[in-house]
């Protein structure tokens, strides 16, 4: 079997495989690469030593059975017999479901999560978006401090378990999207610097030196990241990738890495005949992220829309701290602007940032499904001091309004696991660092961060305490009892409507119209012949929907259709979807 590794600064590279050692030779075809052959098979353990240093895992390792610091293992990608022929599911018309493998079930494995996929198929979602799966130290964590960007965290079940998960999802008609982190690697178990200039001091990020996308040696670093992304799509038959915090990718080259990646993914989609897509997390509010490459954009297929979340969250909760301050002055106006125009900050002044932010989005050219809308995500819950969900502070009626605005709104909807039944379990920040000093630094940093916002240290959960992760696991007995069962039925009804009424998946943002009354706290949305009305106030509201006759398709509380005056009498903290003739 042939082994290869990029080590441009090395004078000697040694392969250690199943107890045998051999020196690698410089590759005559590829500068700075080392290559050699030895006996190996599926499961063989191996690593590389650079200049007689310690034996380290392969930067392109496909499996780390003993964690990020252990030897790599050979993986025969052809050994798994796929059971399902899958033609894919596109982003347009999708309903995504963000899922963290380690807390979706108490077992915290991919196989256990696969056993619960029937719930998602019955719910009506189309894609499962898995939070990061790359190996990280310890057993439990969010996954954003992963290393070994080509491998699957062994406590989750490793690469074979991911293939079983994808096969089961596809058998149920569910696509699978994976959250990948290219903007940094974890502080523990990251051995890439021993091999080459994977990082650069030319730029700095919140996590330290930036991933090297534009300095010397960056051609190979970009190829490393691009190859990893394509491997997830090819070897595991994934349907898309979510790219974490692309605004933190420091890249000054004329041909941006994200454009290179989108081109490669589109090429792979054409070769496989499957729709493949990339979804960016970006706080830039820059339409060029999702603009086609032929219009000088990066060509990504979608992006998270935090403006929608912030406007909705502020309207529901009244919170005004931090970045919510920009939306809190007139939350319904902010929500209406975002629903119609995609971004709230489109060149407007942001008091939170102390500057103007964003760029206008051309509603006539940007399809609505390219923006993802959500009322909750892992970030927006887990980065609260106690990891409290909306269900911890809002009555079911307001949760129903949040669901209606997300699932009947113009954007591709995304749910966070457990949201669909108003889960009472929090989702807190937890880690399992094996380095005591790093564990203590994270613990103290977390408490210091929230102490600045008025939280007592004892009220901030200890990320290293196993109980913090245990509290964050979903309680699967809840969907069968009230009030959770009613909320779940509402989510199912809304998703059914979204799939059955073309107006709800119409990508034309110019056909989205919102009216609202700030003091009375109601908002109405028109999409084609459909009308969505939400009343966030505790008292009933008369909401004008126009003179055309209408029938109620779904409502949280029983309501009568509007009379000849076109007014919908909507109870407090309630919502309804109607169709006009």
Automatic annotation (TrEMBL):
Gene Ontology terms: cellular component: cytoplasm
Broad EC category: hydrolase
Protein's GO biological process: trehalose biosynthetic process
Compartments where found: Cytoplasm
Keyword Hydrolase: yes
Annotated positions binding substrate: 242-247, 306-310, 378-383
Site positions for Transition state stabilizer: 379
EC number: 3.2.1.141
PANTHER family: 1,4-ALPHA-GLUCAN-BRANCHING ENZYME, MALTO-OLIGOSYLTREHALOSE TREHALOHYDROLASE
Protein name: Malto-oligosyltrehalose trehalohydrolase
Organism: Streptomyces roseirectus
């Amino acid at each position: 079997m042939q082994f290869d590794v990029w080590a441009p600064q090395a004078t000697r590279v040694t392969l250690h495989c199943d107890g045998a050692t051999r020196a690698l030779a410089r590759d005559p075809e590829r500068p700075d690469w080392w290559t050699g052959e030895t006996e190996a098979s599926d499961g063989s353990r191996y690593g590389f030593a650079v200049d007689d240093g310690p034996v380290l895992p392969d930067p392109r390792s496909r499996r780390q059975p003993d964690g990020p610091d252990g030897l790599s293992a050979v993986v025969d990608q052809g050994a798994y017999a796929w059971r399902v022929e899958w033609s894919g599911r596109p982003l347009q018309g999708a309903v995504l479901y963000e899922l963290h493998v380690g807390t979706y079930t108490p077992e915290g494995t991919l196989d256990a999560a696969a056993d619960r996929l029937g719930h998602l198929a019955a719910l009506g979602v189309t894609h499962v978006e898995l939070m990061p799966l790359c190996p990280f130290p310890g057993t439990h964590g969010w996954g954003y401090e992963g290393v070994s960007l080509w491998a699957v965290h062994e406590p989750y079940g490793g690469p074979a378990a991911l293939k079983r998960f994808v096969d089961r999802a596809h058998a149920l008609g569910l696509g699978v999207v994976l959250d990948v982190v290219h903007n940094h690697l974890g502080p523990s178990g990251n051995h890439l610097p021993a091999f080459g200039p994977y990082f650069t001091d030319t730029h700095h990020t919140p996590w330290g030196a930036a991933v090297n996308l534009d300095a010397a040696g960056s051609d190979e670093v970009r190829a490393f990241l691009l190859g990893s992304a394509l491997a997830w799509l090819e070897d595991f038959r994934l349907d898309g990738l979510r790219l974490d915090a692309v605004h933190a990718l420091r890249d000054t080259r004329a041909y941006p890495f994200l454009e290179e990646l989108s081109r490669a993914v589109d090429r792979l989609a054409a070769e496989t005949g499957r729709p493949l897509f990339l979804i960016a997390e970006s706080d830039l509010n820059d339409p060029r992220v999702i603009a086609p490459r032929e219009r000088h954009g990066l060509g990504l297929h979608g992006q998270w829309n935090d403006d929608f979340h912030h406007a909705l969250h502020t309207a529901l909760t009244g919170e005004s701290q931090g970045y919510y301050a920009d939306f809190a002055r007139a939350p319904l106006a902010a929500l209406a602007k975002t629903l119609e125009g995609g971004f709230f900050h489109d060149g407007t002044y942001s008091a939170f940032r102390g500057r103007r932010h964003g760029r206008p989005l051309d509603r006539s050219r940007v399809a609505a499904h390219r923006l993802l809308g959500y009322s909750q995500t892992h970030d927006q819950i887990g980065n609260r001091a106690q990891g409290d969900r909306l269900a911890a502070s809002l009555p079911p009626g307001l949760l129903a309004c949040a669901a209606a605005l997300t699932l009947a709104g113009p954007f591709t909807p995304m749910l966070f696991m457990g949201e669909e039944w108003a889960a009472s379990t929090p989702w807190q920040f937890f880690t399992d660092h094996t380095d005591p000093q790093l564990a203590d630094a994270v613990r103290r940093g977390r408490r210091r961060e929230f102490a600045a916002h008025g939280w007592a240290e004892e009220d901030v959960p200890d990320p290293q305490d196993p109980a913090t992760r245990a509290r964050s696991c979903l309680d699967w007995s809840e969907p069968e009892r009230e009030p959770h069962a009613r909320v779940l039925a509402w989510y199912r009804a809304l998703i059914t409507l979204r799939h059955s009424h073309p107006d709800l998946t119409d990508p034309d943002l110019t056909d989205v119209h919102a009216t609202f009354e700030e003091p009375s706290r109601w908002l109405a949305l028109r999409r084609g012949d459909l009308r969505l009305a939400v009343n966030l106030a505790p008292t009933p509201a008369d909401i004008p929907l126009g003179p055309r006759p209408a029938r109620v398709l779904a409502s949280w509380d029983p309501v009568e259709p509007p009379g000849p005056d076109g007014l919908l009498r909507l109870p407090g903290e309630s919502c309804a979807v109607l169709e006009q003739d």
